[in-house]
Batch of 2 targets.
Target 1
Amino acid sequence: MTTQAKPKAAVLLSQPKLRRLCSPACRQYLETHFEVHWNERERELSAEELVPFAEDAAYLFTSWGSPRLSESFFKHAAELRAVAHAAGSVKFFLPASVFEAGVRVFSANPRLSLPVSEYCMAVIFAWLRHIPTYNAALHAGGYRVPGLKGRELTGSRVGLISAGATARGLIRMLQPYEVEIRVYDPFLSEAQARQLGVIPSTLEEAMGCTIVSNHAPNLPETAGLIGAEQLARIPDEGIFINSGRAAQVDTAALVAELKSGRIYAACDVFDEEPLPVDSPLRGLANVILTPHVGAATQQADLALLPAVAEDVVRMMRGEPTRFEIAAADFSRLA
Amino acid sequence: MTTQAKPKAAVLLSQPKLRRLCSPACRQYLETHFEVHWNERERELSAEELVPFAEDAAYLFTSWGSPRLSESFFKHAAELRAVAHAAGSVKFFLPASVFEAGVRVFSANPRLSLPVSEYCMAVIFAWLRHIPTYNAALHAGGYRVPGLKGRELTGSRVGLISAGATARGLIRMLQPYEVEIRVYDPFLSEAQARQLGVIPSTLEEAMGCTIVSNHAPNLPETAGLIGAEQLARIPDEGIFINSGRAAQVDTAALVAELKSGRIYAACDVFDEEPLPVDSPLRGLANVILTPHVGAATQQADLALLPAVAEDVVRMMRGEPTRFEIAAADFSRLA
């Protein structure tokens, strides 16, 4: 294969990012299909460095921490055909005008829903079986914990707020447990609900389940969707999970409900991240706290860059793409 | 319905046990089908109290903590037709000679495998996603934990030691994750393995998986089955789960492997229970410890007595039973 035949690609990812996200096989794949300009720095490019680094590229590969591509950058990038984001949300890295220049946009976001669905299973089971409580008791020298008794997932009721990709993964993982699943999603049709095997429900009905998981998209219309009134609908000893976005849940109301000891919760996302040291969530024994790691798995890390790289190659070959974002969907992205 | 038509049943369970295991509906079911002699005591019957309490019963209902039924008891119990154990292992409550007297034996053991399978899912996911580590870090005021990265269950390799009811439940629950399951079970035929979708394996092969779960039956032949050599086969960062019986695992070898920091583990069963305060397992951050609660769920508690009661009624009607133990299987019971 001759070098001249390959289109130019600029990989903006810093060396630390590449060590995490780009396996030797992925590096080889990129070099097979592109003339690659690698970011050899140990840090991200600055906005000033971006133009000389990437202005002649036909394809741009970006990820978390990559510099935002401004409208002025696109004036320089005359050859650019696509931006491929090896991470989740791409919306804040690009101006909406990107599509007017005929540039196509890819995001590995769909690959990130699988680990988040698995995270939800992890914290559902953790609270159903009181793993944090028992484990703390035994490591502290105790054994039995009076008044504590586990519960089965099988036969329980699960409420899902929104039926996006993560919720659908969760529905699939709940399949062996004969659970009743109530979904609140204004955009879910009766036919889709039937196909998923779930019951279309009001927000109130979904919040009334023993296990409630928030997957609402991060839009202005969903901000504060789950407040004191909604949390009060969770039955006693119910489990509330937020692995989605913090803005949809009224944190003060959740803290009040947790302080009453009435429910259990797991939070992976917070209004402010890193979670402030003085957050009232810290120290409450009935909430599992994790540092926004719902999508953070070894497997997902290594899958993101190949996912968008292979999709760009499909685009180059005129084949149907899998990770491309249509211009019409861009503004509605979470 | 006249009282005379009902056979006599003695329910040995103490009042505290009945409050936990016998719902009002279950009490009514028993009183509909039997003339019930309830143990009105707040404690278990002594061996001496047993004979006058139960000698005229046709059906005996027992559970954890019930007195052992000796051969001499059976000499008194001339009317006895069945013993129904509303709990797991029934072997140690009865002499093997029970069958010679024509008494039939029931155990709710099969109903207890479901919560143990779910327990295994709980601790598998807990370690795959480092829930104990992250949760401890955040509650202690921290946030990110350097060097820690979750893993996905999807696509991983799971080794099961023995293919009993709990392992089969786990196989079913692993179905959504496209895992490769290697099973070590000398009694599992190729055809059964194919039907379960698992790979028949040597003990060494099963122990070489990323996730290994022990379900070996508690028999003299399986004592010490998993020692230092077998544990050493678990890959680095692998997860070892013992929700079965303690005797199958060399605890000193497990402690040594855990102290090296090479693997993660979850133990629900111990050589001595309650776990001694000075157990070397306590305080090791890479082992989840729970107080033999694998089968302990609210749902299972309330299902045990109905399970065997309904089965005894099936026997009375000459219908096929579901929870009965054949004489030939009794000595091989775990």
Target 2
Amino acid sequence: MNALPALVDALPAGRVLTDPDVTESYARDQTFLRPGTPLCVVAAQTRDDVVTTLRWATEHRVPVVPRGAGTGLAGGATALDGCVTLSLARMTAIRELSPADEIAVAEPGVVTADLDRAAREHGLMYAPDPSSYEISTIGGNLATNAGGLRCVKYGVTRDSTLGLEVVLADGRVLNTGRRTIKGVTGYDLTGLFVGSEGTLGVITAATLRLRRAPALPPVTIAAEFPSLRAAGDAVAAIVAAGCRPSLLELMDRGTLKAIDDWKNIGLEDDVQAMLIAQAEGDAPGDASAMARLCEENGAGFVAVSSTPEETEELIGIRRLAYTAKERLGACLVEDVCVPRSALPDMISEIERAAARHDVLICTVAHAGDGNLHPVFIFDRGLPEPPENVWAAADEVFRAALDLGGTLTGEHGVGLLKRRWLGLESGPVTDEVQRGIKQVFDPLNILNPGKAI
Amino acid sequence: MNALPALVDALPAGRVLTDPDVTESYARDQTFLRPGTPLCVVAAQTRDDVVTTLRWATEHRVPVVPRGAGTGLAGGATALDGCVTLSLARMTAIRELSPADEIAVAEPGVVTADLDRAAREHGLMYAPDPSSYEISTIGGNLATNAGGLRCVKYGVTRDSTLGLEVVLADGRVLNTGRRTIKGVTGYDLTGLFVGSEGTLGVITAATLRLRRAPALPPVTIAAEFPSLRAAGDAVAAIVAAGCRPSLLELMDRGTLKAIDDWKNIGLEDDVQAMLIAQAEGDAPGDASAMARLCEENGAGFVAVSSTPEETEELIGIRRLAYTAKERLGACLVEDVCVPRSALPDMISEIERAAARHDVLICTVAHAGDGNLHPVFIFDRGLPEPPENVWAAADEVFRAALDLGGTLTGEHGVGLLKRRWLGLESGPVTDEVQRGIKQVFDPLNILNPGKAI
């Protein structure tokens, strides 16, 4: 393409990558989705690099796919034919960390766990912790409004975002939000960008709220159940009792079996589900209450940690879940979320869909939020999920919506879920969203065809 | 106006009010701002009434000023010449209250405290509690993204809003958000409407998150300080120590004196400020820690409640603040918010502005959020604040921005703060906001001239 030399000239040396082996490595996320062939990758190091790239893209009408670490599960960062993949992974500065105001200003390439560790040096933490938090970046977390394990207590990424520095499609820089905890000047542009999956602008810095890290170590419980439904009932009982877990994770037998086959955790034959819950030091009574509620709902065995090492051991089981499932085959990782009281029903629906379509579905759930990740396993040799997997997934999506839920709790729509969007949002929503997209990106160069 | 009979015909009997004495009573909020003369008031009772009114307004290009209880402090509901004032105060249904999912679906005319009371019957609470919560409505709270005393722990109105039913300017109905705690399908339209001050659509129902009400009564402390700055330092120390107050309110001597003159609370001569803090039953250690930090920062006397009656007595002092000040004269109630570490500096700036311009300023602050309400007192005989009050207010606004703060923490921009907007938000923000307004309200009939 003729325009490429102009981009190379406009950026500092080394920013534009065109070697096909290199660009290919930036083209996919964690989905099976087959990417297009990008024109090039821009590895931005500064906000000015982003401005330059977007000005050029606007001038030459080139689509731009912003990208963090590529850990997405919905195809939001999947390359399009002829696009510039704009990688923010090298913008890794924590520009500021203010313990007094409990805020940090981080660039999009900062690895989520690195920000958390930096905060902990001051007795603070960065709360959002998607399962990928050791490899995913703040920019990707913002793009998808990532959740995680702790969000049952501390909220999702949007709840920790106070302000943003954004480069718009035409290269203008927009500062949204503020450094204060509260503020109502103007429309909530900050919230609008969070979760917009790179379709409205490219975030080059975020003012993030830090939280006080718990002073005392948490108490962790792990409870084994004879049925998935019983575990779901225990979750509903825990929520109804007003416990405030800082983590409440559910794993079905398929998941546990995959972990056991890999790491031999001594899984008994009659265990159909496990619940892992954590109560922080400010709620010590909640751990024993949650253990009791598990027993009352049929748990056969309940382990309670008494040391940080035991806690790590119990949580470690949950952390193995995704990798263990990847050993079984290719994975379609789904992300429905239902009102919390509907969790047991949703679990039953997933089991029914699996049986009806003869699909292996292993489910983990951020149960305290009603957010389930049914993982549909299919033959690794296949380029994409076969018909019966899509049929089962379709039933799961529809069941979630019928139960008052949503297609995606924390992964985003990306490319993967666009074909179901119409089931959840009506024509007025679509029209309004297209109007907003038009305000920010009238030429439709930012991540076209994604999210909305 | 010729169009009015068509509106009267289209709505059920009794909805359109045209008696000038009646329409005048719907024309003002709590500010001194002189309203325009409305064409009529529509007292909507159903969503269909709102749809009918907005369709008619679009057809005839009539401006519409949505209105809740009229307790606003920024002129957001002030009538404009020739407008329809669309009152939502009669839409008072709590359509649903689900203890299992901890949500309520409320219409805009529900009084905030009524929703809270309905939730408490199920061991839950509706957290946002602006000082006006016994008279203000959910719709007004949503329009301004209202805060309150408890938001230091539980967040502002937006943090409790999961979804909305909105009637757009042309009468189309838009449903935003969801019933689930998490969800990332599409752009965050819910957050966009919250705080938009009636300029983007008219909210006819909200799905609101309820929280578990604390099981134990709170412990309340009241500390008296020899200087305002010392009290500000105590707040900074409390925040830095990681205490989690559920309420942290600061009052200056002017405020205390006004309360004492009215209710005789036995104010000593050397008390320049009082801090009222509350720790809930889940953080019992925080109350004693906060008392100790007050003493270390110079508090002369610290009262600690041990019964609910004593708590009510201490909190009662704070509740008297606004009414006590109204006894002194007309009030310009301001609402700056600064990063929490800047609270002592902001207090000093307010004192300097008061002295320099010879204005009586009485300040209360939601100190845990850095949100200050300096109240500028002026002669009740004047139709609006005199020059020296504006000059002092101007300095206070500029100081807040210089300290990294914002013009308004929870009241909104309305008409009152529009002339300072340019100091906080730049031309790109303005252009983007106008673009969003255009998407939702291309004819500019919804609360024109307000908020942005």
